[in-house]
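Reading a protein record of the kind used here takes only a little practice. Think of the row as the fold of the chain written in a discrete alphabet. A record is reproduced here so that you can trace the correspondence yourselves:
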Amino acid sequence: MKTLLLFIVFIGIRAVRRKDDEQFQANQEILHNDPSFDELEEIVENPLGAKVLQTVALQIKSGEGIDSIVSLLTNLKSDLEGKQIQQDGSNAAIQSQCKSDMDSYSQRIQLAVNEINDVEFKVGRLESDIEDYTSELDLKQSQIDTFQGAENSLRDLRLKQSANYNKRLGQLKEMINAFQVMLPKMHELYDKVQLSDAESFVQEEAFANSFVQLANSGPSNPILALVQVTSMMDSRSIQTIIEKMEVVRDSLITSVDEETALEEQAIRDNDVTLNEIFNAMQALTREKAADDESLQDTIRTRDQQQKRGSDAQAEFVASKAGMKQRRGQCQELLVQYQQNTIQRSREIDIIKKTKLNVVKSFIQEQQIS
């Protein structure tokens, strides 16, 4: 007998009352020696196969027709194949979605990597610009400090030069004033000496009075010494002294004019230099302010790039973690699909092994008997 008949016999042997062990052992040997027994055992061990055989056996016992049994097995097989087709389609959609998700994660990772690399390049360039701006600011500040020091030095020097000028001018004016006092007296003395009689007592007394007036005009000056010297000179010598004194006085007046001109020129030169220093400092200050603004803009841009890099790094980490998680989910779904496919293939194979010719043969045999 074929598979189904063996199963029915197998069930019958278990159901009947075992009247004696010898008959039971003989029936067992018949079953085990049948070539279809292994196939029957395989069907029985499968949960679906056992249910199918039990259902077919019940239908046979209840007198169901062959068409009903054929329809049952055909529908069952078609249902399993339909489910497999449906699961194949579902798995194809899942795997397509998984591939799309993996591609999306890969793209996100690559974009994040590109962002990180771009940020590293730009931040490096910005850091270099920041160093350049900082160095330029330090240089300009040093130049401003140098000009400021030069301005302070020039102002101090001008104050000292002005003080020295005022001192020299005062000394020259004092000397000129002294000559202006002495020269009229010397002219008076010259006139008296020229008119005098050297042996006249009256004239000697007049000379003495003139000498006293010269001496009293400036006891701290060289006037007294001049009086003492000129008191022993004749009119020609006195005239020579007067001429020399006038030359010296005129020279002093010229020196005053020259000193004044030099002082005024020094003031003008100093003002020009200070103005040039001021303009240079103003230009440097404007350039420094522009460089400082550029520096602050560069720092802000650098900070924005670093924030962009941090965001890209976070996106990279999140994408890697998401890809890993999604890959695990897809792998689990694939494994589940493969397991279900294997299980359903076995079930379809079980249905195929439950052959209709066995059922027909069994039914025909039952009818003949």
Q: What stands out?
A: The first helix runs from residue 3 to 15. The mean pLDDT is 79. The CA atoms of residues 216 and 224 lie 8 Å apart. The two ends are 15 Å apart (CA to CA).
